[in-house]
Amino acid sequence: MSVKLVTFLLLQAAAAFLAGVRSIPQPVNQLLGRQPRINGRIVGGHSINITQAPYQVSLANIHCGGSIISNQWILTAAHCIFGAQPNQIQVRLGSSENVGLNGQLLGIKKIVSHEKYNQTTYDYDFSLLELQEPIEFDETKQAVKLPKQGQEFKDGEMCYASGWGKTDNPLNFSGQLQQVQVPLIKQQECERLLYSLKVTDSMICAGYPQGGKNVCSGDSGGPLVSSDGLLVGVVSWTLIPCNMPNSAGVYGRVSTVREWIREHSGI
Ligand SMILES: *[C@@H]1O[C@H](CO)[C@@H](O)[C@H](O)[C@H]1NC(C)=O
Ligand SMILES: *[C@@H]1O[C@H](CO)[C@@H](O)[C@H](O)[C@H]1NC(C)=O
Ligand SMILES: *[C@@H]1O[C@H](CO)[C@@H](O)[C@H](O)[C@H]1NC(C)=O
């Protein structure tokens, strides 16, 4: 496949436009045909209960995920939030299902997007959301542990990504939280798989060269967690179709922004 045929997917469902939130960067690189698409959900995963990933939240009205990092702060992807105001975002917590009045809905007081976020390359694809009121933790709502600044993870280490990314088969949409198990991939190997698209130091990849298991549209902003419970990544982008060979998932590498998180949230 030549690089000209590669299509690049931001993992936020384009339906966000319907909510009046202009939060998807426009196609910016015509050569690569980079464009947001509604396509698939977590592929090759399985349903889980929120009690198995109690740090997972849904930014319901902008079709993204996020992670609870303290009783007052959520970490998500900057491309989810781009152009949105705090009063346009609602966080759904403590629910396995992303529909109706399930779980608890909380408003946002403040958005802090990473100052180095680059809409062309998706470098530093991180935003912090401050909640209007503190979360009362229980078995469905818990903060995830953060890695140390600069902490390294082993290539091949198994991690867990989760989200409510939509299905491409509307007859089979359950709204039930999905999880997929994916190994970390070394930076150079990931760029090779992704037809030389740039994987920067603020990104980390996970997936399989043969495809089949991956995050997909609507999963953006959600967690990639190690087996010892550390938040390794924030879902950012992949190639489409999400399940094809070479379609590694690319995540914001949380260990590169640990100090930035502390500076802006005190966490
Ligand atoms: C999730 O687990 C909790 C606690 O075990 C249970 O009460 C709840 O019904 C489960 N929810 C779903 C959607 O399975
Ligand atoms: C984003 O990255 C591209 C490619 O490295 C660079 O040319 C551009 O200046 C960057 N944009 C911003 C706003 O930093
Ligand atoms: C619906 O999804 C389940 C699990 O994700 C899968 O096993 C099943 O084959 C799907 N059914 C159809 C008709 O696509």
Can you lay out the helices and strands and say which pair or pack?
Layout: E1 8-10, E2 46-47, E3 56-59, E4 64-68, E5 73-76, H1 78-81, E6 90-93, E7 104-113, E8 127-131, E9 158-163, E10 178-185, H2 187-193, E11 203-206, E12 223-226, E13 231-239, E14 249-253, H3 258-265
Antiparallel strand pairs: 1-13, 2-10, 3-4, 3-6, 4-5, 5-8, 6-7, 7-8, 9-10, 9-12, 10-11, 11-14, 12-13, 13-14
The structure holds 2-acetamido-2-deoxy-beta-D-glucopyranose (3 copies).
Organism: Drosophila navojoa (Fruit fly)
Subcellular location: Secreted, Extracellular space
Domain Peptidase S1: 42-266
Structure description:
The protein has a 6-stranded antiparallel beta barrel with strand order 9-10-11-14-13-12. It starts with 7 loop residues before the first strand and ends with a helix. The protein has 267 residues and is mainly beta. It has one domain (48-265): Trypsin-like serine proteases (Thrombin, subunit H, Beta Barrel). The longest helix is centred in the C-terminal third of the chain and has 8 residues, at 258-265. Helices cover 7% and strands 27% of the residues. It is built from 3 helices and 14 strands. The model is unreliable at 1-5 and 14-40 (pLDDT under 50). It binds 2-acetamido-2-deoxy-beta-D-glucopyranose (NAG) (3 copies). The site of one 2-acetamido-2-deoxy-beta-D-glucopyranose has 3 residues, from loops. Its main location: secreted. Keywords: Digestion, Disulfide bond, Hydrolase, Protease, Secreted, Serine protease, Signal, Zymogen.
